[in-house]
Amino acid sequence: MKLIYPAIFYEGEGGYAVEVPDLPGCVSGGASISEAIVMGTDAAAGWVLDEIEDGKPAPKASAIQDIHPNEGGFVSLLVLDMDTYAEKHGNKAVRKNLTIPAWLNAFAESRHINFSQVLKDSLITLYRQEQT
Q1: H helix or E strand, kind and range, residue 77
Q2: In whole angstroms, what is the distance from residue 7 CA to residue 9 CA?
Q3: Cα separation of 17 and 36, whole Å?
């Protein structure tokens, strides 16, 4: 899912601040305009992902012509690729099917082993090993 939100940019001594009016409290910035766009997009995607993971819909975006910055600011659009962002940063559980030998299934069930937890723990361990 791709979402587009208008954002207000303000230039200051340390670079650019970016605010997304449709996402209350969503403010970021960067040393350059390109960095501010990247950081603003990341902040907005994180804000929206939190809402979605809480079971809420993504906020409706205002029309760009309805956004009026204070003096010195300008409005541009941020494009959020929520599917890509969620794949990288999301905490929502994803259902996976598992195929194992019947004898291993009997062994695990007799010991009340949580298959999902074992698989998750193992994958996290592998992931951390690759990160070092």
Answers
A1: strand 73-81
A2: 7
A3: 7
Residues 102-113 pLDDT 10s: 999 899 999 999
| Share of residues in the chain with pLDDT > 70 (%) | 97
pTM of the model: 0.70
For residue 8, give its domain range: 2-89
Q: How far apart are CA 69 and CA 120, in angstroms?
A: 46
For residue 44, report the phi and psi dihedrals to the nearest 5 degrees: -65, -45
Same structural domain for residues 79 and 20?
yes
**Nearest one of 21, 17, 38, 20 to 29, comparing CA atoms:** 17
In 21-131, which residue ranges form alpha helices assigned H by DSSP?
33-53, 82-89, 102-110, 115-131
Total number of domains in the chain: 2
Three-state DSSP state, 97: coil
Supply the angle between the helices 82-89 and 33-53 in degrees, to the nearest 10: 80
* Same-domain status, 57 and 122: no
Q: How far is CA 20 from CA 8, 44, 124, in A?
A: 6, 7, 34
